[in-house]
Amino acid sequence: MPQLMIAGKAVPPSKILCVARNYVDHAKEMGTAVPEEPIFFLKPTTSLLPGGGTILLPRESKRVEVETELAAILGAGGRDVAAGEAMRLVAGYAVFFDITARDLQTKARKDGSPWTASKGFDTFAPISEGVSANRVREPHGLSIRLRVNDAVRQDSNTGQMVFRIPQLIEAASRIMTLESGDVIATGTPAGVWPITPGDVLDADIAEVGRLRCTVAARNR
Ligand code: MG
To answer: What is the distance between the alpha carbons of residues 9 and 30, in angstroms, rounded to a whole number?
Structure first.
């Protein structure tokens, strides 16, 4: 299983907690309302892929999309963490792709089924090496951008988040115990883009870093 890295130090991954519709413009492009409280879902740690890796498109899906997200990596855990205390848990930040089999997700939505398949395939959670939290002055004011084959597809700012990291940690820690090695993916801005074999994805978040991946069909 790939390790998480923060400033050259390995952090064993614990869980990957993602947030649905946490940017107003993305909720709009999905034709859904902005939620009144954070909606969480999990990805398995087996879906992690280090930067530079190859995202494998499963045969089960005809449409896989990339979502670029700021991830907070926790260095400490807790339960019922107040928003005012929450940032103490964050050890670092990384660039994250929430890879999504959109057709499977749309079907799950329609059927009222979980998103596990659409979000959980191997290689569906690429993550860059993290930077230490103390190197990022304000995580809610960073430009976030995705290029697919050199064309800009996402271009926004983490200041557009609906629920910010302290609120996400507070809300999540009421549901489940948070632990060191947890990754909290904070949601994607508009411009999610379908990916196909041969594509080169290149995302950057100011002060945090860069995540590059290639795309291939999974042959089995
Ligand atoms: Mg997402």
So the answer is: 37
